[in-house]
Write a structure and sequence with these properties.
Elements lengths: L4 E6 L3 H13 L5 E7 L3 E3 L4 H6 L8 E3 H4 L4 E4 L1 E6 L4 E5 L5 E5 L2 E4 L3 E3 L7 H4 E2 L4 H18 L5 H7 L1 E5 L3 H17 L11 E6 L10 H13 L3 E4 L3 E3 L4 E4 L4 E3 L2 E4 L3 E3 L16 E2 L12 E3 L4 E2 L16 H20 L12 E5 L5 E5 L2 E4 L1 H14 L3 H14 L17 H8 L1
Parallel strand pairs: 1-2, 1-9, 2-5, 9-21, 11-18, 12-13, 12-18, 13-14, 20-22
Antiparallel strand pairs: 3-4, 6-7, 7-8, 10-19, 15-16, 16-17, 23-24, 24-25
Length: about 425
């Protein structure tokens, strides 16, 4: 028997971690040496980010340490900065900016996606994304700290600015984050000298509807529910600028907001531009249904970064949408095909029809559309929790999340802001400087 195949996986997200776990189960150490590369040492289960931000789930419980779930794999906390398919090598940036290169026999390119931003004046300075656990924790602390500051000032204009929260993007991520945080804030007001009518929650969406993932009837229901809860919704318009936290919308609405959250879509990881892999016009890796990268033998891709043909669509040239649902299912097919490649077996094509979507809109509120069946209110909220608890990796994490939910039934949510954790050395530096 020859040397084990060198399988390198770029990305420790859902695709990378699931593929590595599947391969470790199917391949012995003599057959393959697995290396997973990601700047973070953990996988984030993004469907629970909104609940982590709202305090329904402990943030540490929505991440899965890669070294814990990938025994027998080499995990490198590094950033992949390039791929050369001719020399079959990956360029890495590790500690202190040190650059290294490692070779591969089989390569999986699954770096995921990042927030898709626009050159809007003030957005880079004042906007907050909602793609990572760090952003979710920061947003929670930021929102709660606005209540602390608003309750402590006598300046009416400042108070109005502090209590205005703007969300840009009406997809699932934006709606869930906004609804969960509003629900958390409303419950927190019991401890503040702030009336609920002073809170201003504004949603801006460029399309003429929200939540394109579900039917128009469920989207209309969700819009009505948000409006009833006091949300101010601007459809068919965009954010023009937010310099100095002064917001100007495309419909000429103007106001000050001290919280500006950007959830207006995602784009493939920019590292793909520094590779010789074929990319489609949107920057995703061009793949076959077998998840093999076009024109690159031994290279596979899946997830948000991959343009995988959607064979269930009637639209010519359609590719699978960048969603957790596709990523989780593609990872299983990807692992099977890598094993088949090593053992000389036939490869399987990826085919998956859209099962549906579930979304939480705060405690006991939600919408769901599963295989054409539409649910709303408490049943949809319960289904959202049950589905994502089932798909959360490891029994360890499932148990901790379930325990978080059970504890929250008799007790209130924790609504304390711990913003100092974002600048932990500030007090020490001040003390050191006298």
């Amino acid at each position: 028997m020859g040397d084990p195949a060198r399988i390198v996986i770029i990305g420790g997200g859902y695709v990378g971690a699931t593929t590595a776990r599947q391969l470790r189960k199917r391949l012995s150490a003599d057959e393959a040496q697995l290396t997973v590369i990601d700047p973070r040492s953990y996988m984030t289960y993004q469907p629970f980010l909104a609940e982590a931000a709202a305090g329904s789930v402990e943030p540490r419980h929505v991440v899965v340490p890669l070294r814990e779930v990938l025994p027998g794999c080499k995990v490198m906390s590094a950033e992949a900065t390039g791929v050369d398919t001719t020399s079959k090598s990956v360029t890495l940036r590790v500690a202190d900016g040190h650059v290294e290169q490692i070779g591969y026999d089989i390569l999986v390119v699954a770096p995921g996606s990042v927030s898709r931003t626009l050159p809007i004046p003030g957005l880079a300075e004042h906007g907050i994304g909602f793609k990572t656990l760090e952003e979710a924790v920061y947003l929670r602390n930021h929102v709660l700290s606005r209540l602390d500051l608003a309750a402590s000032t006598v300046d009416r204009e400042l108070r109005r600015k502090l209590l205005t929260f703007l969300f840009v993007g009406g997809g699932y991520a934006g709606i869930e984050a906004m609804a969960e945080l509003e629900d958390m804030t409303r419950h927190a007001l019991k401890d503040y000298a702030i009336d609920r009518s002073e809170l201003r929650w504004v949603l801006v969406e460029a399309a003429d509807r929200i939540m394109p993932e579900v039917s128009s009837s469920l989207a209309t229901y969700t819009l009505g529910l948000l409006t009833k809860r006091g949300f101010e919704v601007h459809l068919g318009t965009t954010l023009k600028s937010c310099e100095d936290c002064h917001v100007v919308l495309g419909d000429d609405t103007e106001f000050d907001a001290d919280t500006i959250v950007w959830t207006a879509g995602v784009k493939p990881s920019p590292m793909l531009a520094d590779t010789d892999l074929p990319l489609n016009p949107k920057g995703r890796v061009c793949c076959a249904t077998t998840l093999e990268v076009d024109g690159a033998p031994g290279v596979f891709s899946a997830g948000d970064a991959a343009a995988v043909p959607d064979v269930t669509s009637k639209e010519p040239g359609a590719v699978c949408a960048p969603s957790a649902q596709h990523a989780s299912r593609q990872a299983v097919v990807l692992a099977k095909n890598i094993v088949a490649t090593l053992r000389g077996g036939p490869l399987e094509g990826y085919r998956h029809s859209y099962a549906g979507s579930v979304a939480s809109l705060g405690l006991y509120q939600g919408v769901a559309q599963i295989y054409g069946v539409k649910l709303r209110g408490w049943p949809a909220w319960a289904l959202h929790r049950a589905y994502h608890l089932m798909t959360m990796p490891t029994a360890h994490r499932k148990t901790r999340i379930a325990a978080d939910w059970l504890i929250s039934l008799p007790f209130r949510r924790q609504v304390v802001a711990t913003g100092e954790q974002h600048h932990p050395r500030e007090q020490f530096v001040r003390a050191s400087r006298g």
